[in-house]
């Protein structure tokens, strides 16, 4: 048996860091600016606890492009480094000065978050630079300045230097020929805004011209002056306590996040948790209309105010990825390049907590101002319905605030609605039948028949309703959903009363093949029913089971292969209508066929989902004309 220590040489690891550590070379700027922020935060901490006598002064970090000399420089006025510290922190791969600092001052460093963790970020600079130089001077009095340079090989130069006269560090990147895009001011400004716009230390990139106005009317004067261009907001809204923010602050923050969005969000949810894990953020509910393309990747993940990714798969439940906003947590485990999430048990806990907070907020809004919640319902229902289908815990909570709209535009929770219809819409088998329509105008004829019976009809539209009904039917109560055009109204809610048929069984046997001979048997099933004589003679219905399974199959679910099944319809013939008796008694075969054809065509017209009340009245009049 032998033991030893695995040896990793710089000759072998350096090319890997340069080429493969980061998925995107642009991340180097995020890493170097983050290091500058850490150096500044460390100085603030040491000053606060009395271990640094340095005057803090202006701590703005400077980012400068020198296109002529092909350099990009990141300068800070932070803690700085002596030659010995450069040797310790720069020349040792994967030795994190930030991690060491946090461990040393764990009980005292409560005022400033430290970003660094792995001790590799600095070396990302060699992905874009042929040479990197460091000019640094420690905050401690009497320390000598330091100079370090390296051309991307394991060889480096380290010596004392007085070039940097004041406290802090300059990182100078000599951009290589393959990466000259990083000498373009527009490119650097975009990257700073992407990765650094909410860092806690001011970051300056060049200057900008502003216009100031004095006086008004004829005395109004405008003057222009040049000021430092600070690209970041050091105290974003999510880093503040909810009690310190007004409604307008949240709206302004939303505009900061999405400057090209002109529509305000419906409401926000402020996450502010420090136990059992660290979690801050603000989530916004956008307006979502039915059938619009839903956009994901609108929630941004930050760690200590550093942008990480907008792909939050795992940390945010799938149904909430349609929300907008920010989540910031130092407890979210990231890979070594801080580019994406690592699989971890903490992620599930955080995800579950976010779901709970969203549900609690929705419940609070519902209870606080129900009328306002109802006015927003159609804008948010798709997200909530998706959540109810994909998350059982959210489903349980949502039962208290999820709304269902009747065709008369009144709203009720599911429990309230079942109580409302219990007396009238319980069938002979004890099932509570929820009637619904997918199109208020298009299914007007069927809705009218239900309302004439004293029944209420829900308006349920959207790609998820078939799945949602299936889930609601699976509860403890005997509830079933039936679309108003899926059968005759007397069959949808069957009562004990038996309707007497004017036609004998012998007459029915004679009539059925006559009508079947005039319709496409591959599409229509002829069904003879004894309905009220006031009902139309011909009616086309879509069987609930077939239609629902096809819809579920089209959106992922239902029975395999149902989506490819052809459309099937029932042609319901009301044997108690005078027109049907006339058809049976008609001796002229041609006229008999014409009556059947006209009756079926009128039924098809009534079933067309593009028309409403006017068509219903027209069809009824035409049936009366046929009867005459």
User: What structural class do helix, strand and pairing data support?
Assistant: alpha+beta
Tell me, briefly, the overall form: elongated
CATH A-level architecture of the largest domain? Up-down Bundle
Share of helical residues: 25-40%
Question: So how many helices?
Answer: 18
Indicate the multimeric state: single chain
CATH topology of the largest domain: Four Helix Bundle (Hemerythrin (Met), subunit A)
Q: Total strand count, please?
A: 21
Mean pLDDT: 83
Q: Let me know the CATH homologous superfamily of the largest domain.
A: Heat shock protein 90, C-terminal domain
Distance between the termini: 106 Å
Question: Can you walk me through this structure?
Answer:
By secondary structure, this protein is of the alpha+beta class. It has three domains: 10-206, Histidine kinase-like ATPase, C-terminal domain (Heat Shock Protein 90, 2-Layer Sandwich), CATH 3.30.565.10; 237-374, Ribosomal Protein S5, domain 2, CATH 3.30.230; 404-627, Heat shock protein 90, C-terminal domain (Four Helix Bundle (Hemerythrin (Met), subunit A)). Helix content is 35%, strand content 20%. The chain contains 18 helices and 21 strands. It has helices spanning 10-20, 27-48, 83-89, 97-104, 185-196, 247-257, 345-368, 370-390, 392-398, 414-421, 444-452, 465-473, 489-492, 505-516, 544-554, 578-585, 589-607, 613-627, and strands spanning 61-66, 71-76, 129-137, 146-150, 156-160, 168-175, 203-214, 221-230, 267-273, 279-285, 299-303, 306-309, 324-328, 404-405, 411-412, 432-437, 457-459, 479-483, 524-529, 538-541, 569-574. It has an eight-stranded mixed sheet with strand order 5-4-3-6-2-1-7-8, with helices on one face. A five-stranded mixed sheet has the order 9-10-13-11-12, sandwiched between helices. Strands 17-16-18 form a three-stranded parallel sheet. Helix 11 links the parallel strand 16 and strand 17. The longest helix has 24 residues, at 345-368. The protein is elongated and about 115 Å long. Mean pLDDT is 83; it is low at 94-98, 114-118, 335-340 and 558-563.
